[in-house]
Amino acid sequence: MASHRQRVARLRRLAARALDAYPLADRELRFIADEDNATFRVDATAPDGRGRFLLRVHRPGRHGRGVDPAAAIGSELAWLTALRSGTGLAVPVPFRTAGGELTTVAASPGVPEPRVCSVLRWMDGRIHSAAPRPVHLRRLGDVMARLHNHAAQWRVPPGFVRIRWDWETFFGDTMVYGGVSAAGAWDLLPGELRRRCDRVASGMRRVLAGLGEGAGSFGLIHADLHLGNALFWRDEVRVIDFDDCGFGYWLYDIAVALWELRDRDDYQDFRSALIDGYTRHRPLPPGGLAHLDDFIATREVAFMLWFTGTAQVNPVFRGELGQVQADTGRYLDILETSWPRA
Questions:
Q1: Helix 292-310 crosses helix 191-211 at what angle (to 10 degrees)?
Q2: pLDDT level of residue 339 (50, 70, 90 thresholds)
Q3: Contact, 140 vs 237, CB < 8 A?
Q4: Helix residue spans in the chain (DSSP H)
Q5: Which end of the chain offers a freer environment for a tag, N or C, measured as fewer CB atoms within 10 Å?
Q6: Alpha-carbon span 141 to 302, nearest angstrom
Q7: How confident is the model at residue 338 (pLDDT cuts 50, 70, 90)?
Q8: pLDDT tens readout for residues 198-213
Q9: What is the rounded CA–CA span in Å between residue 121 and residue 234?
Q10: Distance CA 341, CA 299 (A)
């Protein structure tokens, strides 16, 4: 396994090559993160003046095995464009190549295969995930409901390809995590943790079958809309990181927003604030919050599988894997006491 420094250096060279496809001059490239995608901040001069951009180097297989990554990423950017034009929501603006394309493909020595890359206009704002207050969840719920309202009435264009967040995606062998199949990630879990995750998967098979995929329960969602992906700028909440967006349960989006707050003593305050903000613009899905904890447990398992697979190729993740797995087991124990049964 390459070291973190080696990985970043290789991805930086690829990122620099990807930028050659864009009408950007006097470029300054700064590494941000190497997680699912590698991301870089780009300060450069565009045709409309000096600006800041986000370059994403997308991981192969990110959207499921057999899915064309360029089609999937282009579909994400198509939704962002529709949100910008059809709502007052502040979401990232795609920046096209010199040839007018939404994505480009770049390759570089040391990176196993060519990567699809995309560029977005930079968005400023503060992230409040480290020190959240209920008001942040209320405002996040407000934005989430408006996003769901748009998704519920938007007609997706021909060729639109995004993940389906159904049972097979959460618990089956649809996804690829860091080059490891989902089934392979399951096999890497310690025995007792796997048994706990299996119980969640078994319960959710019944829950999802009961909910069905009607328009009242299921639609196009962000799928990663927690406080870490919300930028607060004056009176505006700017939603970023649509990389997981796809067709799933409205309630899953609500669960994701609460997932990282689930062990706080003041959790109920955050939950109430989120729901208050959401229901100002949109009613809760049929059944209300009866299966909220089920979806929070689902998020916990999905995160654990992703982290375990990614740790096989990313040394930073590998160093934290033991602690993350222990935390997952503890959280699932707590959640299991309150799971409603279908």
A1: 130
A2: low
A3: yes
A4: 4-19, 69-86, 134-153, 167-171, 182-187, 191-211, 250-259, 267-279, 292-310, 315-336
A5: N
A6: 22
A7: low
A8: 999 999 999 999 999 9
A9: 19
A10: 17
Amino acid at 142: D
Residue with token string 């502040």: 90
Residues shown for the chain: 342
SS3 231: strand
DSSP 64-98: -TT--HHHHHHHHHHHHHHHHHHSS-B-PPEE--T
75 touches 159 (CB < 8 A)? yes
Neighbours of 240 (CB within 10 A): 22
Q: Which two tokens stand for residue 55?
A: 């370059």
CB within 8 A of 44, min separation 6: which ones?
19, 24, 25, 26, 27, 28, 50, 51, 53
Q: What dihedral do alpha carbons 205, 275, 88, 101 form, nearest 10°?
A: -30
Q: How many CA atoms lie within 13 A of 318 on its CB side?
A: 9
Are the C-beta atoms of 254 and 278 separated by less than 8 Å?
yes
**Mean pLDDT across the chain, nearest whole number?**
94
How far apart CA 226 and CA 11 sit, in angstroms, is 27
Distance of CA 12 to the CA centre of its chain: 22
53: which strand partners?
42, 121
